From TrEMBL:
GO terms for molecular function: 5-oxoprolinase (ATP-hydrolyzing) activity. It comes from the Eukaryota. Residues 234-264 are annotated as: Disordered. This is Hydantoinase B/oxoprolinase domain-containing protein. It comes from Phaeomonas parva.
Amino acid sequence: MHSLMEEYGLGTVQRYMDHIQGNAERSVRRMLHDFSLKRGMEPTDSVSAADYMDDGTRIALTVTIRRGNGPLETSAIFDFSDTDPEVIGNTNAPPAVAASAVIYCLRCLLPASDLPLNQGCLAPVEIITRPGTLLDPSAHAAVVGGNVLTSQRVTDVVLRTFRACAASNGCMGNLAFGDATLGYYETIAGGAGAGPGWNGASGVHTHMTNTRITDPEILETYFPVVLRAFGLRLGSGGQGKPNPNTQTRTRTRTRTRTRTRTRT
């Protein structure tokens, strides 16, 4: 950034930053406008969807689109108010998690593949959460699982609302182990939802889990473990077509005494 300002000047850099955000805003407005027309919606109309956490907690979203006087005046309200109350466990998620899922999904729904993710994507959008719910918990609620679990399910709900694709595995499944001298953390891949014109995929990272697995040679060299097996867990995708084996399975044996935690 300093190099850019030295070469072009602060004013020029700021103007182009504004241009990038303005382009993102216009792109989102056009996408919302086109979606509304394609769905045969009224000038002000709503679409909604819901899904559930593993404990049955409901995440609900209603998107109200106002077309205004054309694409560049189209806006939307993302209302999560009907989501269930906060839970005793730690899968509560602060409002920032819902906002992150929304901006991610909006960027995914844009046809332009080279548009950088930026705040302009949220300019046409208002996000509403209801205090005391899973997505707007109280100050005393546990939230450590909200970023790795709930965020994925919120993403599924947003994409479902726009009829973009089927749900993915809905969780940043992860494995962690270690002791006082070392620590290891790995996200576990799962299934990716199918969509118009493409099949789902097995054993891949989706949405927020943008990590690669650690090579077995690296794992066994730097950590006191032996990798016994790594592959797809048979039948983990239910009865779906064409491939019901979506979740990965890892079997390891530790050479020293460690503490292990999993979340999936």
